[in-house]
Amino acid sequence: MKERVQKFKPIKEELSTRSYSFTIWLRNLSRSKVYSSYILSVLLTLFIIFITEVNTTQTQELQADYELLWNYSGVSEASVSSNSSYIAVGGGAEVCLLNREGEPLWIHNINAGRVSDISITSDGSYIVVGTDAGTINLFNKQGKILWTQKKMLWEIRDYNSTYSHVSISPDGLYIAVTVDDNGEISLISREGKLLWSYKVDGFPGCVSISSDGLYIAVTVMENYKNSEILLFNIEGNLLWSHKVDGYISDVSISSDGSYIVLGTNSRVGLFNKQGKLLWNYYYENVSKWVPEEVKTVSISSDSSYIAAGTDNGNISLRNKTGELLWSYQLGVDIGGKNIYDISVSSDGSYIVVVANSEVYLFALMVDPIKLILDQARSVISQEKTKGFIVTKAEALFSKTEQDFGSGYYMRASKLANQAKNLALDIDQDGVINKDDFAPTIKNTYIYFILTILFLSLIFTIAYISNKRMMKRKTNKCRLIIKQLETEGCDVSALRDRLIKMKHLNQIEQEFKELEDKIQKLKQIESEIDLLGLECIVKLYSSDS
Ligand SMILES: [Ca+2]
Ligand SMILES: [Ca+2]
Fold first, then answer.
1. Confidence bin at 539 (pLDDT 50/70/90)
2. Residue ranges of domains in the chain
3. Ligand 2 centre and the CA of 454: distance in Å?
4. Which of 91, 393, 485, 530 could form a disulfide with 422 if both were Cys (CB 3.0 to 4.6 A apart)?
């Protein structure tokens, strides 16, 4: 046994050398560890890409500042088209369409009742008017009354009711109506056909339909203490409902139905499409006993801006996260006007407010927007002169100018910032052109490729070192086998097996077994030599 240990000593020494340790490390790496480190690196690279993408898509929040353009008397309800080209207003029996300058385009006197609600399509093509005499009327842009719904509902159903609230989808295809007296919510087509009705337990109040007409938000007053907000789909199925303490004064849904804003008592609340309350903003009490009541709310169709008006004349504009962007106090000299209707244009550039029988148009101040556009324009031309291809930025900027010309100031400012960012960082990897070692290729892609190359290198080194080690071991085995063959042993089967082996540890095992066998054979050989032939004959005869 001693001899065997000594014989293996040189191999052990070899094992302890540094180069061998590195080979072992690589060999281990070539198995399970390398896969986990490979996956980890890929995930890390993807994470970097994700972070960079998120960073580049972030847009600057504009600090809004509005100015009062004009006001118009004799109004109780108002609704604004997408870029404030048209403002439909109603007061008493009069329905009027105003242009952006506050000039009446036409005035129409309805036959029965007073205007209780008004809603205009995004392009101003259709105006739906609800009255307290239980009628709904559809007007076109020219002021022609297309139909009046009274006969159908009153004759088919045997009750008198008041259409208190109406909302037309911005494309004008659907009109959502609530009938408070009989507790019904109805959806009517533009042609005046009743599509469905839904009976609720209580008095339905405000209604708001999304741009694509796919969602309808309705408020219901259950009793004097509790209200409820309901969301329906286009087929009239109730998607969810949410109970609210107190009285809900107004509801407004964004274009795609993603957000629903609610005005109730002294708070404004924002819900998502799934009915989850995202945030609440509470107004402080005006006096010790009287809270500031939220009377009206409106969300821009792009869901970026939420306007709210209170009975104390407070107008506020918030972003989706609830952060206050702008606020204004209407009628400070008379202790605040009672705001009862508010309507924000599609991109938040205009806010129409109705208070104390007057309609006010607030517009975003254009000078700061002009400045943003000028900055973007100069950055794009600068980058162009540096030799960067800025066609994407230029295309976006021309859209920006179009938007600005059409009165979509908020959108124009956002697009201008995006165009500027696109020109400054043409590959949108978060590194500006002048600091970017590859301005036209996203750096994360380069890092990703480098990671792949590095891992491939590790794989190759591990593979080669493994192969070398195997070769060394097999050669050693071959030598022993050869020696055994010259000594007259038949080891052909063992030789074939060793050559076919693909794994190092398998060869090592075989090699060890082989060494053991050789040792045993040598031991027997020496024993035979020592004992001599006589003893063997003796042993043989005693065994038998
Ligand atoms: Ca870049
Ligand atoms: Ca780059």
1. low
2. 2-49+444-543, 66-364, 368-441
3. 20
4. 393
